[in-house]
Description:
alpha/beta; 6-stranded mixed sheet; about 15% strand
Amino acid sequence: MAGGVIERYRTHLSLDNSVRAVTLNEGDTPLLEAPRLAGAIGFRGRLLLKLEGLNPTGSFKDRGMTVAVSQAVAEGSTAVICASTGNTSASAAAYAARAGLDAYVLLPRGKVASGKLSQALVHGAKIAAIEGNFDQALALVSELAQTHPVTIVNSINPYRLHGQKTAAFEVCDTLGAAPDYHFLPVGNAGNITAYWMGYREYCDAGVIDTRPKMMGFQASGAAPIVLGYLVESPQTVATAIRIGNPANWKAALAARDESGGVIDAVSDEEILEAYAMLASTEGIFAEPASAAAVAGLKKINAANPLPSSSIIVCTLTGHGLKDPSVATDAYPEPAVAAADINAVREVLQL
Ligand code: F0G
């Protein structure tokens, strides 16, 4: 369907009717059956993957960015600003370009995947590589926005969450019901908050009768919500969720508790195993942070097998091409062969 999430779900988005959509036709992403992955994990029910990497800039952030940037333009703003582990900045830079706004971006130096950085650069964002982590960058953004005429487009901007909740609407619209469990990665905790808002609203409106248990996963080196305290130096291969002080911490706990769900941690080894499993069993290339949700499903199901009658949706938040070096570092370089049929046969053992 053409149009993007504002056109599809406008009445749910708290936007004034006069707000014109700044859109790249985000949303309406595939919800893909994943029987081979379910089999590999040992889950006997129905598993579906929400492929958010197929949004225009390659991550779920576009859903929130279309709403936040449209509202910013309507308010007369001429610039947006964000801190980012990469995807938010890619999306902010693209939507700002689309709207003719300036974009200012603060990134943790050396910790942003190359695909994401290339997007912020090519869309013309003004970038500061901070000698610090995401949490420090977000604190600086909040400070800057107090004295400069810039709109913050991190998920502390409520319009971001309204946009992102449309993914929950789409899941329900496609399935004709809510799933039993919804698995997703947790970083700054905006997305789990937004999904829960979407499920709650659809339930209150009578569109669905039940709500899923929200199952969020942090990387074990960056798991403040699981630990119950702030992590000063978060570390993980999944740089998208390398966050030690999530802005939506309390709302994420509410999503967990109200839904009867879980927020747990998975190790980098488990994340990389799930990353490879997704790619080899289903042909889906998702970035490492996205694989944390699959690793979480494997962990939970191994500890206590989930009923075979359950429907599980797992959100794959970003495309694997965002962070290609994780793949190229994990596998040996391809063997070189002369341009000769026998040499090629030998290399391929064909
Ligand atoms: N997956 C990906 C691919 C992400 O980029 C992020 C967050 C998350 C999961 C976690 O979502 O923060 O809503 O809990 N990326 C942010 C960014 C922090 O700056 O791009 P969350």
